[in-house]
What we know:
Largest sheet: 5 strands, antiparallel
Helix content: 40-55%
Distance between the termini: 46 Å
Number of helices: 10
Number of strands: 7
Shape: extended
Radius of gyration: 28 Å
Strand order of the largest sheet: 1-5-4-3-2
Order of helices and strands: HEHHHHHHHHEEEEEEH
Amino acid sequence: GRNWRKWCADLFPRRTRVFGSLRSCCVLLWTCRFAIAMADEETKTESVETGENGDAADEAAGEESGSVLSDVLKTPGVLEAVQDRLGALVGMSSGYIENLPEPVKRRIKALKNLQVECLKVEAKFYEEVHALECQYQTQYKQYYDKRSAIVSGGYEPTDAECEWEDDDDEEEEERGGEKADKEAAGKQTEPSVVPVDAKGIPEFWLTAMKNIENLNQQIQEYDEPALQHLTNIELEYTQNPMGFVLKFHFDPNEFFTDAVLTKTYEVKAEISSNNPFAFDGPEVVKSTGCKINWKKGKNVTVKATKKKQKHKGHGQSRVVMKHVKVESFFNFFDPPEAPSEDEEQETEELVSVSACKIFHE
């Protein structure tokens, strides 16, 4: 489960927290909801004070503020900047410390320094855990290779390897008894989707991914025929730089010519000198996909649409084909580029200006 969570969360490609990103998302959504609720309350109060004549103006103002908020949140990088801002709010002073005696304030500063040292040890711990993962991946490989061989049908497990008893076996026996009863009563039973002479475990990886929360939402119906050719997924840890690579292996198919699709992640476990207490474990700082060599007319990430276009000179119209990007699991291999430092600064300024406009209009 831990390895899957690492690569499923691509909501914040530049500084995605490997641990704790879900919590930050919840805080972000709660903050936006709270802001909208506050705007609604202000609108209601002004409506009572101004009467019917003020209703239209207040409603227009509310709609404008909502529109501004919506536009801001749609801007690339804004969610990431808001997340960073919310992270910076953690530990903000309530005024209590400022009113303490100077000797007590001095001891609190000593505690802060101690906490920073503890965080440095924690960062070192995560680095060493990653080094251990790199070391042990060779020991896992033999088992993963055998799993791949069983799934693909390249190896038939022995009777001893197939010995396994659990609650599912009892349920299967009960279902078998019910099936026999139905057949005895002359009723037809539904045929199995998988043929008896099937090789390995058909559609193993597609089924696994569809049973993973959040990941299954990325898989569209038109992705499935291509994903049926997925034969294996490998995880390879890297040390320089610290990170990991996901490798998706495919059988020859009618969709693309690539045998392997990859996505590379760069991870850091460093403490910020500007905001050390925001450290929450390793974070993904960069992700790089790969180019998919689609066969003609088989690219499931785009949709061809026809559009009429008039010539500016003679006014004659013509039909042109446009390719529009659509939701697809395979967009996973084409992550958005990480913003530059200048773009990050510009985004933060946009968030600040827009927030002021929303809350002070």
